[in-house]
Structure formats: structure tokens, C-alpha cells
From TrEMBL:
Region spans: Disordered: 1-30
Name recorded for this polypeptide: DUF72 domain-containing protein
Amino acid sequence: MQDDLFSLDGAEAPAAPAGRRRGVQAMPATPQDQALAAALQPQVHLGTSTWSYPGWEGLVWAGRYSEATLSRTGLPAYAAHPLLRAVGIDRGFYRPLAASEFQRHAEQVPRGFRFTVKAPSLVTDPLMRQEEGRSQGLNPLFLDATTALETFIEPAYEGLGATLGALVFQISPLPASMLSRMNEAFDRLHALLLACPRPPTGVLAVEVRDAAWLTPELVALLRDTGARYCLGLHPKLPPLAEQLPLLRALWPGPLVARWNLNRMHGPFGYETAEKKYGEFAEMLDPDPETRAGLARIIRGTAGAGQEAFITISNKAEGSAPLSVRALAEAIVGG
């Protein structure tokens, strides 16, 4: 098996008259996308890292809308796309979200849709930072269990309910002083995960930005706590193939993956990618090798009856909705 796997409460509002439809309108699904979605296993939840991009006109949106409008009211139209069965809520990384905010999102999506949510940097960044990102010293709340429960776990469990897919502790790069004492970092993470009750649905996952985490000690820690490793497709980490041994060691179980940035841009290439990809309407830098490897893992995971939660950034290939479509084709075609 491992070789196969890894070689508005209340009544509905009346419809607006023709020509005066309200809100963000979804791009009608093509027969091809409908057929592709029908061929995907129900355990496969593909989506993008967020949903507020005006450049997705003609891909996700049936018209031109501002980023603010899409952020505020675009989620139902996004979730109407047959291939988009998940989405990330990355803004929680910058500011903890209340249960009511999570609930508002959950009420806008259909049954079977799942959210992947990043924990607040208040908990996952080892450094305190100024507004522009400069360090202000060590963060005393780094991997603090009480803070994580109060600002992230409890609000997400309460607000998301059955739409919870993966809650991800994405641990920011560690300073040299911590990298030289990894045992302390592992102990902190272990205590944090042990303090977290099991989610009502979905999983807890850990994503890292330092290869120093990728050791048997992390495997043992995740096994002991029931958390999953989040496959981080980012140039700061080894390529997908080199992360597979860790996934094998944790098999069987759900898959969590976040395809963040094309390796061609390097570990600090977010701004370069954003400038190159413009409005994120085209796939400018296809990465079929990564896509094929990811598709194979997803097929094996879903084939074993396990759920797969996959989110893709625009900065992976140029346009996240097109990457989702191409990945779905690779999963089905494989």
C-alpha cells in the first residue's frame, strides 16, 4: 500500500429580477468541470489559499468585482464551483478570528465543503515583529498551549463545526538560537498538541519552514498526539519527493497539503511571483512534476478511504483555480 501511495438563518431571500441579480455571481460551470468533479472521490477537497482575487473573472466569477467585495461576499460564488471543495483562511495568521467569524464563513458554503485555517502568528512565530515584519525579540507566547486554545482551537471548533477541514500550525522559521536547541522546540510543540482536544471533524496539522524539523522525532510526536504532517510545498523545504518518507512513516491517515510557492522563485520569492503573475488569471509557470507527485499521493490517500485537504496558492503556477483544475485532471487521469 505504501509503495502504491508514495512510488442566513431563515427563509431564502426572493430571487432578484433578471438583469438585477444581487451579489457576486459565480461563473457557470462547464460540462468538463462538472464531469471532472463527479469523477473525484468525495474524500478529495481541493481549493485555493483564499478567494478574493478580481483576476479570477471568467474562471470563478461571472463579472468584475473589487477585492473588498469578493472578500466580504464572494465565498458563496467561489464554493459554487464544482472543483472548489475547500479554501484556506490565511488571514487568521495575522489576527485571531472569533467563533462568529468562522461561523459566518461556514454558513456560506455547501455540505461537504471544508476550510483549512492557519493558526495565528501570535502562537506560531518564534519572534515578535513590528508592522513591517522586523523582529522585536523572542515571542514569549510561541507554541503556548493556553493561547492556542483560546485564540484558535476553541473559536474554530465552535464556529466551523462540520466544515472544519484542517487547522494548521504553520511554524515560522526559527532563529539560530532555537535551531541549535531543537529539543526545546519539539517539547513545546508536543505539549501544545497534547493540550488540544480532538477536532469535531477534520484534523490538526503541523507545517514547518525549517528542514531541521523533518526528523524521526517529529514523526513520533505526531503519532503520539494524533496530529498530521502538513506537506509544505515551499522552496524553504526539500522538494516533495524528499518529504515522502515522513508521510510514509505516518501512513495511514488523512493528507494535508499546502502548495505555497513555485520552487523557481526561491525561498524568498513571494514578491517576485506576485509581480510576475499579475492578476493570477493564467498559468504562467506550470510545474507538472510537483502536480503529478501530489496527484499520486491524493489518489492513494482517497483510495484508502482517507480524506485529503489540499489548498493551492496563486504563486504555485500563476493561477490557483487553473492549478486546481490541472491537479484534478492529474488525479482522475492517473
